[in-house]
Amino acid sequence: MAAEALSPDALVRLVAGHCLRYPDSVLYGELPRLRAALAGAPAEPARLLGTFLDHAAGTEPLALAGHYTSVFDTRNRRCLYLTWWSDGDTRRRGLSLVRLKRIYRDYGLEFRGEELPDFLPVALEFAARHESAGTELLQEHRAGLELLRLALGAADTPYTRVLEAVCATLPGPSPETKAEAKALARNGPPQELVGAGSPLEPFGPGIDRPDDLPMPGADLSVDLPWPTLERTAS
User: Fold this and answer.
1) Is pLDDT of 223 > 60?
2) What is the Cα–Cα distance from 33 to 57, expressed in whole angstroms?
3) Is residue 61 predicted with pLDDT exceeding 50?
4) How far apart are alpha carbons 96 and 84 in whole angstroms?
5) S-S: 169 plus which of 9, 117, 118, 189, CB 3.0-4.6 Å?
6) Are the C-beta atoms of residues 13 and 136 closer than 8 Å to each other?
7) Which is more confident, 226 or 109?
8) From residue 40, how far is each of 5, 107, 122, 126, 221 by CA, in Å?
9) What is the DSSP letter of 39?
């Protein structure tokens, strides 16, 4: 069964997720397709992601790879692992990682790969596939996302544009200061933005899962790869 086109916000998440992976030969090979896919994205996130893609295209792969590894770490509080922001290096984080695997599995997606399931590109992959549940998941980790965005901005890195595009897919304005972002961690996002009840509960299957997920805005006969989430047998 052919899949319907991804929504504009889902498309932003898909492209951003690829941009936030380690910049290897796969990313450089996909740059033209990622750029073409932005034709289906909202104007401002498309501009932000396009700025990053322009930077990547004009940067030597080894230079961008070195920049990536220097930017994303925990020492400087620029971490791509969502539960690190909420749980730190505690035993509670292990429970959060197990929960994320269960969430993916409940939607018929089995986590595969070397990264942890809270790696932001993995969460963006899920949020592109299942937009409503994915939005709730990202909103649950909104404080960490916004703190990462602010930290990247302070580091003056082109990756700031990618986080700005991701946050633009979420309800409401982004906080302007670290204090405002930390307040999200204490108080949580407004309930009208995430729905009633506990976040992402109940969380179960029962939705139509298409056989493919084409990227609109370009002449693409096959999907860009989904490296870490595979559909389970129905």
Assistant:
1) no
2) 12
3) yes
4) 10
5) 9
6) no
7) 109
8) 9, 25, 21, 19, 16
9) G
Rg (CA), the chain: 17
Hey, where are the domains in the chain?
8-193+206-231
CA–CA separation, 5 vs 151, rounded Å? Answer: 33
Rounded CA-CA distance 7/149 in Å is 23
Distances in whole angstroms, Cα of residue 3 to Cα of each of 78, 213, 222, 229: 35, 6, 12, 17
Which CATH number does the domain 8-193+206-231 belong to among 3.30.10, 3.10.28, 1.10.3480, 1.25.40? 1.10.3480
Tell which residue, 138, 184, 101, has the closest CA to residue 12. 138
61-70, 168-177, 225-234: which is most confident? 61-70
Tokens at residue 184, please? 């999200």
Two structure tokens written together for 209: 């899962």
Beta strands of the chain (E only): which ranges? Answer: 109-111, 229-231
Strand partners, 73: 78
- DSSP H or E run through 182: helix 178-187
Cα distance between residue 30 and residue 37, in whole Å = 11
Average pLDDT over residues 134-146: 91
CA distance readout (Å), 74 to 14, 37, 77, 96, 210: 24, 32, 5, 18, 37
> What DSSP state is assigned to residue 230?
E
